Amino acid sequence: MFLEKIRKYREVILYGISLALLLLLLRFLQFRFLIVSHQLELYVGCIALFFTVMGIWLAQKLSHPKIEKVVVERYVSTSVFIVNEVEITERKISKRELEVLQLMAEGMSNKEIADRLFLSLHTIKSHTSSLFEKLEVKRRTQAVETAKKLRIIH
């Protein structure tokens, strides 16, 4: 516990010890004349030097925060995706509905899909509800998941 505190405040302790040694050195060499005649200037200079060094040290610590790396692993299939045309034909999914479904899988909203395909928002909503019926689902996430399972989209 005591050693942990020493490690934590090592730099501060070293600065304190170095300042104490500096003062002892001044006393040892008996610069009384210098100290007596310029006492205020020396103390102000020592304090200014101490705060300058501490400010530089603190600025370096604050300006370079530790950054943790996050590694994201993704499974990448090396097999070639083949669209299940039979399933598309059986469920009577049009090419436009297939485009809407693919854009839904990319995470686009109805408004973004409408803008991308140059269609009205109402048309996109109609395609979406039609897809829900054809895929027998109630939500967009379910539609995308079902379409991927059926190999309609990748």
The first-to-last residue Cα distance is: 57 Å
Radius of gyration: 36 Å
What's the CATH superfamily of the largest domain, by name?
Winged helix-like DNA-binding domain superfamily/Winged helix DNA-binding domain
State the total count of DSSP E strands: 0
Summarize the structure.
With 154 residues, the protein is mainly alpha-helical. The chain has helices at 2-8, 10-28, 32-37, 39-63, 85-90, 95-105, 110-117, 121-135, 140-149.
Write a structural description:
The structure is a single chain. This protein folds into two domains: 2-63, no CATH class; 85-149, Orthogonal Bundle (Arc Repressor Mutant, subunit A). It is built from nine helices and no strands. It has helices at residues 2-8, 10-28, 32-37, 39-63, 85-90, 95-105, 110-117, 121-135, 140-149. Helix 6 (95-105) crosses helix 8 (121-135), helix 7 (110-117) packs across helix 8 and helix 8 crosses helix 9 (140-149).
Which labels suit this protein?
Arc Repressor Mutant, subunit A; 9 helices; 2 domains; 154 residues; mainly alpha
Write the topology of this structure.
Layout: H1 2-8, H2 10-28, H3 32-37, H4 39-63, H5 85-90, H6 95-105, H7 110-117, H8 121-135, H9 140-149
